[in-house]
Each structure stands twice: as structure tokens, then as C-alpha cells.
Amino acid sequence: xxxxxxxxxxxxxxxxxxxxxxxxxxxxxxxxxxxNESQNLVxxxxxxxxxxxxxxxxxxxxxxxxxxxxxxxxxxxVKLGAQNMYFEESGAYTGEISANMLKxxxxxxxxxxHSERRTIFNEIDETINKKIIKATESxxxxxxxxxxxxxxxxxxxxxxxxxxxxxxxxxxxxxxxxKNIIIAYEPVWAIGxxxxxxxxxxxxxxxxxxxxxxxxxxxxxxxGIIIQYGGxxxxxxxxxxxxxxxxxxxxxxxxxxxxxxxxxxxxxx
Length: 269
Ligand code: PGA
Prior knowledge:
Elements: H1 2-19, E1 24-28, H2 35-49, E2 56-60, H3 63-73, E3 78-82, H4 99-104, E4 109-112, H5 115-120, H6 125-137, E5 141-146, H7 150-154, H8 158-169, H9 175-178, E6 181-185, H10 199-216, H11 219-224, E7 227-230, H12 238-242, E8 249-252, H13 259-267
Parallel strand pairs: 1-2, 1-8, 2-3, 3-4, 4-5, 5-6, 6-7, 7-8
Bound molecules: 2-phosphoglycolic acid.
């Protein structure tokens, strides 16, 4: 009897935890929008959001707009993220921005390991790992991107690629720090191409990632971690993607550059 009760309680608790994963919709503005355009876009988002807080909303403008966007989102539910940072604290690193600088300008999040950083700017897993460690030490939350290229998917190596990126990126990251990390699964072939992974394809990889977290950390960590999908998410495909069991949100590029389409993705939650 007692054992049954304990089992029931565990099941209840577990379901509660699963349900408690709040969806997170983030907009990655990439190299778009000067200060004026950024102010217009974020104002449109704030006005359209109202008081609805069914999901967390993050905007990631370019560095030059962070300060002005931050002024506009104060007192709202919208949170601020940057698109990159360097792992050193200060010094002779021309062109780089530190975690503390991002925090001082109001950032709560930073995107790290985006495939454009990996391919265009030659960022390797070891560098991304150093950045993740620095960000978490500095109490910045991380949106950590991983994902396979088209040829890797065609060769059937998606899971191997994702596993390696995840393990290397999270090396020496403690379970406590993992609580401040969102994983964004972004198949490279789906980014900016209009080709989205089907909900089933995305769900498969998301559940694989959650399992990896379970193997390398714990069931609790796996159930708690937010795993976003990214890659041509738009108002038409968002609802189906977001209804998958292991898809906890979206990292949106192209479709976040217009307030209306970003808002309808948020509404589909
Ligand atoms: P996309 O970009 O939505 O334009 O495909 C997503 C991303 O790169 O984060």
C-alpha cells in the first residue's frame, strides 16, 4: 500500500515536472536592424504581447541595439539576449565583447555555438565550451546551438554529430550550471532555407538530446532542460513543431524580424 502510494506520488511529481517546462520563444535578429529599426521592432512586439505570459520571450538584437532595446523592455516580460560573446574577461581582444559587458547592458541570455559562428567564423567546440563556461560563471544564461549539416543527415550521422557537439560543448559544465542552459537544436540545412525539419524529425533528435542529458547528468536534469527547435520556424509550422513532446520552444531567425510573424509564433504556444 505504502509502496503504491510512493509510486503514485513519484508519477505525479514527474508529470508535474514535465508540465512545468515553460516554452521559450527566442528571436535571433542576426546582423539586422540599426537602433531605430530595433526600437520599432521591439515596440511592435511589446504592444502585441499584452500581458500574456504563457511562454518566455527573448529578443537577441545586434550588440549596437542592446542598450536601447533594453530600455524599452524594462517592466515587460520580454528578456534580452546577445548573439555572441568572448570567453576572456577583458584585454587586447579587438572586436570582442565580454560576458560582464553584456550583463551591464541588460542581457540575461547569450546565444553560443550558432551554426553561422561555427561555419563562417570557424568556431570550434572547444571555443564554444570555453564561452559556455565563462557565461555560466558570469550568471548569463546560454542558448547553446547544435545541429547537423545536410550531408551529415544524409550520411545518417545526425545523432553522432549532435552527441559530439553536446558533449564537447558541455564539458566540465556542472548540473547546477546546466539549469542556466537552453539547448537549441538547429539542423543547419533548415536554417534560413525555408526547409523545416518535420515535427517527427525534430522530435526524434530532441528526445535523443534529452536522453543524452539523462545519461550524462540525471533524469531530473533531462526533464528540466529546455530544448528549442530552430530552422525556418514560421507562423505556419510553429504550432505543430511546438506541440511535440520534447520541443520546448523555438529559436527563430527570419520570421522574428517582423513583429506580426514573431507574435503569431508566440501565439501558437
Ligand atoms: P531561421 O534562423 O529561422 O531564419 O532559419 C534560425 C536561426 O538561425 O537561429
